[in-house]
Amino acid sequence: MPRSYKIKECFYTLQGEGAQTGRAAVFLRFTGCNLWSGREEDRHAAVCKFCDTDFIGTDGTNGGRYSLRECVELVQNLWPGGGRPYVVCTGGEPLLQLDVPLITALQQAGFEVAVETNGTLPVPPQIDWVCVSPKGTAPLAVAGGDELKLVYPQPEAAAQPAAFEHLAFAHFFLQPKDEPSANHTAATVAYCLQHPRWRVSLQTHKIMGIE
Questions:
Q1: Which residue among 42, 53, 59, 137 is the active-site one?
Q2: CATH superfamily of 4-208
């Protein structure tokens, strides 16, 4: 039986975070994660307790179950033309589903393929841009890539910035945790000033009011 992909949502917007901030992109969000079920009743026991993304089911914009060909056509149809076509594969944890055949097909359709992953699963070497966002005590299976984007602060010793500085990433970002009960921006700024290897990443899509 041909492989199919469960997609929560797929939409065209601007990348809001990290080194590619401001770049036009198609976001392809896969359902499912290996660090949290996505259900509020399970959050207290999750490895990642601060996720703010809905990745359950296929009820989002353009959500559904797609064959490889259908998935590529969905992404193609959302790109307006021009520029360097760019697709960000995200989740949940996209590498539970994203595989080499889909990566290759997207690239053959002209797209630069990025992944936003928690880093617990190996990244296929074919991917063009790798963004790893470590979570809590989850062990990393990825030792390098284009950017490491750490939500800050996290209480676990394994998730402190210094624990990642030996890794082979081109960019190191701290992103203030979006937490209603606290404003973590000042602490993030202070850490980056004291440790210049790190740069601040803001969720500019939320600031601009876009997806």
A1: 53
A2: Aldolase class I (3.20.20.70)
